[in-house]
Design a protein that fits this description.
With 632 residues, the protein is α/β, with parallel strands linked by helices. 65% of the residues lie in helices and 7% in strands. The strands form 3 sheets. The protein has a 6-stranded mixed sheet with strand order 6-9-10-3-11-12, sandwiched between helices. A hairpin with a 5-residue loop joins β1 and β2. The longest helix has 53 residues. The two termini are 60 Å apart. One of its GO terms (molecular function) is ATP binding. Pfam families: ABC_membrane, ABC_tran.
Length: 632
């Protein structure tokens, strides 16, 4: 039996079982298989749980016929005791069934969350290029809950189907007419309820799409709340969120109407079934074909069969919701990583010269190199190439959400077109990855090195890092590898003492999600501290001090070189305070390295360099070559 939490190895482990994304039904069957033996154990326990419920009415009928009607008190007592034992057994098996079924639900729910997490790890920065954040979050949250609900209802529906057939056989062996009525009732319920399932599924899909968009809006608002407050845009964006919330509510109401219609059909038919069974049973007793005990048994079975019939309706509802959710999940899980494994992996020599063919920049090992560009995107693109990150493409995002006015074949065609667009984008990324990367380390192109090795040895800290909720210690050292002295050294270099002091509890102080309790400068220094603490062989920093004041920047600049002494460090910046401490500076013009040397020399000899570094271009170069600083 698979234990909880579920073991998930897909995507990040080669050869691990990955979800079947050929179709929603194939994916859902894969989810069932992932429960392993637990699904079959749950079904067995559910069947055992149904035994007392199928035997109980028969035992009541026998107690009436052989005990009460016959006037045999001993027989009545025996049947009552037997019924009590069966009831106790049913209660115990019900507890076991509930325990197993909740376990199935949780495995499907958290297994989906783990799959999304591992897919995000596999795709990295490419995931947000291909799929909106709201869709990914919805798959991890609400869709995972739908899959868990499907596991529960599937087990329950199969056990109650078996009980339904057993009861039908018992009734049929006693009375053909009443047995036929029992056998016909459930198929009739399914037949009349099926036409209502398609519009219900459509509106549930619309609700799911609108809710995904609402989640994306919430993510964007939270991520940019500080900026929104600065420009006074809270009311506008809050109004947009409120309007989208109403659209979600409207679609939920529409889906609820069809759901209520399906429920009404189930209640109407199950109630009509009990009435018909009672009427027919009374006639059978009047004509002498049934005994009083048998009639009571049949009425008990009639009341019992309401439960399976309602379960079949519930199964249809949750199946349609799960198909909608599975279609969204496939859009995420079917995406292939853009990187390929080299046929003959090479070893990365981090103590060698790094050369970027596109810009012509070469970075000497073991020194502090800084890159200056009038266009920040050019230096950021160089940082991406050094870390082997794919460049972002405008308009590359492909959503699986389709316009609400498309139905039937038009909706299927649009969904297929978007799936093909995502496949085409993945194909382009894969072709790009198969080509030489253009960045060599000691003459070895990064495309010949396993991506895991590149990530292990080359760390890129960009301008949009993530800060997760947790302690300061876990934010700086998530793997728990640092000693206290190493962590404090990183804190000192990043001049982040005020971050430490601002949190009650010091290293055990709690950070809010995204570091919301910190200022922009504090959050940036926390990220710098984390990058320094990783102690990677090659460190690439993109504008690491853009949000800090000049005095703090001067302290960081004076300490960075000593902290990274002997290891390759590349900083993308145009700050004179940092550039003054660089071992070597590279100037990019139109994305191409046009000059290199010491900061003071470039200030003196290069007008292009002065135009980027010196604000206004007319400051005294000698003053900038020796800026005042506080190095303590």
């Amino acid at each position: 039996m698979r234990d909880f939490p579920p073991e998930t190895r897909a995507y990040t482990d080669r050869g691990a079982d990955a979800p079947d994304t050929r179709s929603p039904r194939a994916f859902l069957w894969w989810m069932v298989r992932q429960n392993g033996g637990l699904f079959w154990v749950g079904l067995l326990v559910a069947l055992i749980w149904m035994v007392p419920q199928t035997v109980g009415p028969w035992m009541v009928g026998r107690a009436i016929d052989t005990g009460i009607v016959a006037g045999d008190s001993a027989a009545t007592t025996r049947w009552v005791l037997a019924l009590a034992a069966v009831t106790v057994f049913g209660a115990a098996s019900g507890i076991a069934f509930h325990t197993v079924i909740v376990r199935e639900w949780l495995i499907a729910l958290y297994g989906t969350t783990k799959l999304v997490t591992r897919k995000a790890l596999q795709l990295g920065h490419v995931l947000t290029r291909r799929t909106p954040t709201g869709e990914v979050l919805s798959v991890s949250g609400s869709d995972g809950d739908q899959f868990g609900a499907l596991m529960e209802i599937t087990t329950r529906a199969l056990s109650q189907l078996a009980a339904y057939l057993v009861v039908a056989a018992i009734v049929l062996s006693t009375s053909v007419r009443m047995g036929v009525l029992v056998l016909v009732s459930a198929p009739l319920l399914v037949l009349l309820g099926t036409p209502l399932l398609r519009p219900m599924q459509r509106w549930q899909g619309v609700e799911r799409s609108r809710n995904s968009e609402l989640t994306s809006m919430a993510t964007d608002i939270v991520g940019g709340l500080r900026i929104l407050r600065g420009i006074g845009g809270e009311e506008t964006f809050g109004g947009n969120y409120a309007a989208q919330s109403q659209r979600v509510r409207q679609s939920g109401v529409s889906a609820g109407r069809w759901l209520a219609a399906v429920e009404s059909v189930g209640v109407l038919l199950s109630g009509g079934f009990v009435v018909a069974l009672m009427w027919l049973g009374t006639r059978e007793v009047a004509q002498g074909r049934l005994s009083v005990g048998q009639l009571v048994s049949f009425l008990g079975y009639g009341l019992f069969l309401i439960q399976p019939m309602r379960t079949f309706v519930e199964f249809a509802q949750k199946w349609t919701r799960s198909v909608v959710s599975a279609r969204k999940a496939i859009a995420v899980f079917s995406q292939r990583p853009p990187w390929v494994h080299p046929d003959e992996p090479a070893t990365l020599d981090t103590a060698a010269v790094i050369v970027d063919a596109e810009s012509g920049a070469s970075i000497r090992p073991g020194v502090l190199t800084m890159v200056v560009s009038a266009v920040p995107d050019d230096s950021a693109a160089l940082a991406d190439r050094l870390g082997r990150y794919l460049p972002s493409e405008e308009g590359a995002l492909v959503s699986d959400e389709i316009p609400e006015d498309l139905k039937g074949r038009a909706a299927r065609r649009e969904r297929s077109a978007r799936a093909l667009a995502r496949e085409e984008q993945a194909r382009r990324d894969e072709e790009r990855a198969r080509q030489p990367w253009g960045v060599t380390v000691g003459g070895v192109d990064l495309s010949r090195v396993e991506l895991e090795d590149v990530r292990r040895h080359i760390l890129v800290s960009d301008t949009s890092p993530q800060v997760f909720a947790g302690t300061l210690r876990s934010a700086v050292d998530p793997l728990g590898r640092l000693t206290r002295e190493q962590a404090e050294r990183a804190l000192h270099t990043a001049a982040a003492d005020d971050v430490f002091d601002a949190l009650p509890g010091g290293w055990q102080g709690e950070l809010e999600e995204r570091g919301r309790g910190l200022s922009g400068g504090q959050r940036q220094r926390l990220v710098l501290m984390r990058a320094l603490a990783a102690d990677s062989d090659i460190l690439v920093l993109v504008e690491p001090t853009s949000a800090v004041d000049a005095h703090t920047e001067a302290r960081i600049a004076a300490r960075l070189g000593e902290h990274r002494s002997g290891r390759t460090t590349v900083v993308m910046t145009a700050s004179p305070l940092l550039l003054h401490h660089a071992d070597e500076v590279i100037l990019l013009e139109s994305g191409v390295a046009s000059a290199r040397g010491r900061h003071a020399d470039l200030l003196r000899d290069s007008a292009a360099y002065r135009s980027v570094v010196v604000r206004g271009g007319d400051a005294d170069p000698s003053a900038l070559s020796h800026p005042s600083e506080e190095s303590s």
